[in-house]
Fold this protein.
Amino acid sequence: MKSESPQKTDGRTVQIVEDQAKFGPASYHVEMARSGGPVAPSTKGMLAFLLTDIEGSTRLWQLNRTGMRRAIARHDELVTACVKQHRGRVLKERGEGDSVFAVFARATDAVSAAADIQRAVATEAWADHTQIRVRIAVNVGEADSQYRGTAVNRCARIRALAAGGEVLLSYSTAMVVRDELPAGLQLIDLGQQQLRDLTSPEQVFRLVIADLPTDSIVPRAPIRQQQAAVDSVLLERQGAQAAVERLAAHAPQTHYAIAEKNVHVAYQVVGGGAHDLVFVPPFLSNVEVWWELPVAARFFNRLAGFARLILLDKRGTGLSDRLSTVETPEERIDDIRAVMDAVGSRKAAIFAASESVAIAILFAATYPDRTARVVSWGGLARFSPAPDYPWSVSDDLYTKVVELAASQWGTGFTVQLMCPSRAAEPRFRDWFAHYERVSASPGGLATFLLNNTALDVRAILPSIQVPTLLLHAEGDTFADVGNSRYMASRIPGAKYVELPGTDHLWFSENGDRLADEIEEFLTGTRHVVAPNRVLATVLFVEIVAGADLESRRSEESWRDGIDQFIQVSRKEIASHRGLEVDASSDRLLATFDGPARAIYGAQSITRAAERLGIQVRLGLHAGECEHFAGKIGGIALQVLAAVKDQAAPGEIAVSSTVRDLVAGAGIAFEERGKFRLPNVSAEWGVLVVVDPERAERLRPQPDPAREAFESAVERAVGGPRTRPLTPLSKRESEVALLLADGLTNRQVAARLFLSERTVEWHIEQMLGKVGLTNRVQVASWVAQRSSRSPA
């Protein structure tokens, strides 16, 4: 089936084509054809349908029949004018009382008309005190010559979901117009909604009109159904007064963005201020449960009063996908990006609390063009103690938290650490107990804490180019105030505010003061120059020309091999989300938005060189790069060149900055010393990427405190305790035992705190050592030889 309807644009006719055989039932593409003259909606084929009606019209007729008659006449004039202005046609014979039915050849025209209708109705000086509110729906689809069909019926059902002053779009409409919306219009995904009398649900989008207020739009059922359920729970738990506060909060709908690895990240949007503000929460997080606590709801409503507030649950917590693997800093950065993309936010202020401050710093340094400002509450730059950083949480405290969580998770035991000022209040502690249970699990906490201890963003702090506000409670019982003082001294131009109190929780004793500081920081008028620098991981690939190798190959053969290697390397760079910035006959330079992806890309390039018989050495460094004339420069490239020179043929050398940023990715390194650049005081460590077996041999013995911490985590998540199975190493034995228990590679990686690539490598080595070919054979082999020590 193929249907077309022409539309006029810039002297050409645009054919919107639906081709089910090629693109699927709801996919569209655009073809250009020569044409001229005016274009009107066709009487068949693909069209955009706009349906309106007046909210509460029956009640308005009963209150003021004369005034309503005049209001309807004026309403018809306004709607008809807006439809005609955008090349649509009003079908008078198809209206229902106070409703209007219009058709358009272009979906963008229909959406623009809908926005103008709402503007006209909102600004009209209605006579006789008869203020009316219009609800509108837009859908695209096919219809017969009488403008009848399922697309029209679906549009009517979507209209039934709309509230007065609201414009709702179907999924197909949103997909057609999302890249061509006029200025001042934006889409918000309201998720799947069941439509009356229709078997399949519809993903519905709200059209946000920048110059019209949204606070007067009260969502209709069933969009409000989930909110009503939470209200009911609050009435039972916290009494009438708390319920009134909760009802006034109008908790927003929860939606889902698709982030890296197809992870679903839960998010909410509330408020309609001029500034976008993304809140990146700490480990304990649940976007819906926050609204059950009046003090938290009041804090978020304060922020929503001057900003469009975007809340999210990071992967593995709250309402987002619970994972069987350890998330990397890159993946958490991508969660922020995915949510911003989902809500149409090109640039936002990033507000983070506790351990998420490090992730906000990485995001701001990596994506300065998408970061307006950074706000930090109770943050840390490093998560394990070091001689030059004494303010981090100790391994002893981590151990105590993990051991307590194993027996007391879900009882509210963390309130004493997070919010001591209210720990004695039974109702607050009960809420905190529920908050623990719906945020994560004891094993998730243990895994998270261990993964975090490898995170260190101190080297990134001087790269922050956006205005930064750091706040901390003077007597914070969890994160020492020295953390924020240190970061404020390292981030250029940062503003630091120290507040009285002991709470690590952001919305409790300092909630109002914190909201005041954020409002002042966001709504200032200081001009911010667009950044020409960005934090990036840079890859240097150098071809090593060996005389003995060249003597065995002709010049032509050598050049052919080099050309083939360059082409393969470019494909690997692109497949790992890299960007080539320079190339010559013997080297390549590329940037990546994440260091782990850069390392995986470098490993793929090394393997390709080995297959082609070409010797290469590679270097990686993460630092601040200056962009000019399509090229990159700055001290980061000097560091990169020095790092690359430390690599032998076939090796990948990385700076210590890269090592610090891939914490939790399961990538193994061997240290190669340190170096300084001339006239530069900073010092960098150099490491080379090694295979996991070599890393096991190089791994130093942990100190007693670290051993106790790791043992507590192992007990919390059920990690295996094994003796090696000859001829396997201890790590290979652990992998073999878990495979025999039926775990997938991803589950094994999560259990052993490894990356899936590392697990795959161990399996390959293990199968080769014992002469097996599949998992079934592994299970049988383990059953004969396994010797688990008692738990």
User: Anything to note?
Assistant: The chain has a mean pLDDT of 79. Residues 233 and 292 are 9 Å apart (CA to CA). The longest strand covers residues 616-628. The two ends are 65 Å apart (CA to CA).
